[in-house]
Amino acid sequence: MEAIKLEHVTKSFDDHKVLDDVTLDVPEGTAFCLLGRSGTGKSVTLKHIIGLLRPDSGKVLVGGKDVASLSGRELAEVRRSMGFLFQNSALFDSITVGENVAFPLRRHTDWSDSKIRDTARARLADVGLDEDYDKMPSELSGGMRKRAGLARAMALDPKILLVDEPSAGLDPITAREIDDLLVDLKKKGATIVVVTHNIPSARHIGDELAMLHDGRVVVRGTAEELDRSDDELVRAFMRSEGSG
Amino acid sequence: MIPAGLAIALIRETGPLTAGLLVAGRVGAGIGAEIGAMKVTEQIDALEAVAVDSFKFLAVTRILACIIAMPLLTAIIDFCGIFGGYVAESSISGMSANLYFHRAFSIVEFSDFIPATFKTAVFGLIIGTVASYLGFNTTQGTEGVGRTSTASVVLSSICIILINVVLVKLIFFVFPVRS
Q: Which residues in B lie closer than 8 A to residue A91 (C-beta atoms)?
């Protein structure tokens, strides 16, 4: 069964069509990597899945529910089942790193303060930041902020994890650790959608890959299938070793 | 009559309007800039992504805080103004505190204080709503945050002055001036 399904999704900002009849589905418990050059609509696709953007036409189904038609509690319920790592981390800059991770737990659980703090610390440990619980986001490097954002996205043990460029700004070793963490989450049953330019990372994480170009899905398949694509752009992209 | 004139002017009009304009300048700008900065750095999207209603979490709380704080601040401004008048009067003419405050409150009644002070809750509503609205609609990065901050002050100040005219008329209608 598909955890996520996009049906003929079209989205424009002013006169610029960012998504043009995009149709995708992501089966439950798999990792799906969305590739493409900058500005081709990858992040916009993720924001449609979590309901931050609504399509001009088409449907975005998460667990069979059309996210675009939901509001209030129903939308909140769907969002509680998802975690989202933003491209620029989007940490709350007025609270500590630890409280950023604890924030979803404080809002959506009735756990004790100590249990929330322990869980937040454990999530931070997963991304190698357990020593940084009491630091402010402004004290972290870009890569550390990215990891803290990932820890926050994982805080509620989401069934679906949407990750926007997880390895951007990370050194190769940390990037590999984050990739391994995403693979572990997938093994535990989470559905993961990763937007990335990092082809080695996509090969490592993704069960399936798709490439967006000019707002359209130009190819979809396993990494090996994309390697053999007839499209020169796809083959060139797959040959690249982009780290961002 | 100076203490009485000062007290009635402060309590009925100067205090509430000064409080409104001060808070519009200080708090309105702050709310607009804070929410605006959260908007352009995707922190509001991040709130929504963790299933938190950003409007309730960021705007409603601030609007309520403004509504509650405004009458309290107005009362403090009224008190400080009247007390300042006493300090000035006593240093110039040597008037005693007893006489000053007796004269100051000789013509002031609760019907002067209550409506004028509590009308500032409406000012608080305006400041919180205008600044939050502009913050949520901030675009174009840090430059946009600056514009939001300025626009929050300007727009809420104008709205306060205009709505004050209406509220004064309404108060005079409900509590007619004693002849």
A: 43, 46
